[in-house]
Amino acid sequence: MKIGLLSNRYKDPSCQVVQKVETILKGLGCQVEVVRQGSTVEKNGLTMFSESRETFQDCDFVLSLGGDGTFLNAVHATAMNNTPVAGINLGSLGFLAEIMPDQLEDSLGRLVAGEYKIEERLMLDAKVKDSEGKILHHYFALNDVVLSRGNAPRILPVELWLDNQFTEMILADGLMISAPTGSTGYSMAAGGPIVDPTLELMIVTPICPHSLHSRSYIISPDCDVTLKMRYYPFEPVITIDGQHDILTSYTQTITVERSDRKLRIPRLREFDFFRELPEKLRGRGYIEKSASERR
Q: With 80 as the cut, is the pLDDT of residue 115 above it?
């Protein structure tokens, strides 16, 4: 078995955790490929992570060592071949990274032994097209696809089309399309609903709309979402999962649909999303023990 490790150099600066994980896995008879996250490259004038889709191509699993951002980077690096991704949580929230540093030996042993269940998550397929319909950019997203005004000082005029039907003209700082996994991220901060991450649906949420009402759309995963912009003299920005930024123009169109790929997470324990949610979002509530647990 070959396992890839994507380690966040800022969360594990001394490499103690990644070295411990590598030692444990090799002791279990695994081959290990280690990539250190943190280097960046310039693309379209914007900074993005340098890990590519060619990383970890022949791995059976990939482990991210960091927070949810590192986990998302691992998902993007493995999206083309549907490699299962698990996370070792060195961050704060850890919605996606399940394994804690004090559980390494037990968790990695169970992972190698196949003592897990695969949980699948819906992903999004995003394309940016020019005025003639030519695809300029193509990305996969687990959390969200965001169209925003970027650094421009003016409000962005966006037409929302669902299944080729004009739905609404939205004047806002931007608009995002979220997968269920992303409902606790930027979408929630913008007033979107929290949904079970294993559901299959999409959420469309305006960002600071100039309107007397602000409502999200919860739509079928089979719906084709199209964003068209009215005249805009600046360069809006399309952001994929907070990982990749693309400068665009009002002449271009963004389409988002269900991806034919899914994130596959090897679950080592039962995951009760709504029970763990308050603890993950510290300050928004607490987990109250049941009567049987208090005995």
A: yes
Fold of 123-260: Tumour Suppressor Smad4 (2.60.200)
For domain 2-116+268-294, the CATH architecture is 3-Layer(aba) Sandwich (3.40)
245 is catalytic: no
Q: Which helix (H) or strand (E) holds 22?
A: helix 16-27
pTM of the model as a whole: 0.86
Which residue among the candidates 68, 144, 241, 245 is catalytic per the annotation? 68
pLDDT in tens, 8-31: 888 888 889 999 999 999 999 999
Q: Lay out the sheet containing 202-207: strands in order across.
A: 217-219, 202-207, 174-178, 144-148, 237-240, 244-247
Contacts of 95 (CB under 8 A, 6+ apart): 68, 181, 184, 280
Angstrom distance (rounded) from CA 63 to CA 32? 10
